[in-house]
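Page 42, continued from yesterday. The earlier attempt failed because a stray header line got pasted into the input along with the sequence. Redoing it now with the clean sequence only.
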Amino acid sequence: MGLDKDFVQKIFSKGEDRVNRSIFVKPEELIEISDEDLRYFGEGIFYCLPDNEFVKNNKEKIKKDYNLSKEMPKINGIYLPTFLKMRSWDRIRKTKPTLKEIINMTKKESI
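This time it went through. Structure tokens are written below.
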């Protein structure tokens, strides 16, 4: 289920990697997420991972290994990367949503 534990430990090995990302979720949530949710969230998962060289160099391998959707998730009709730059994301971020809650927000969009 979810991302491989060793992989998650490797990408979060440096202390700065815990804060160097757009969506703050606990590394444990990345491991515990269901494979179905991970596939659905697709490339949105990269916004939960640190912006480091290891992730950048292995992006294609990650997409292939976890069979990620090529679609970028949307929240309120807005693609995730754009939504993360908006003030409305700041309000949501302050509530400290879990990864599951964020994925559910994107699923509401596709219904």
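Notes: The chain has one domain: 5-110.
Reminder to self: strip header lines before submitting.
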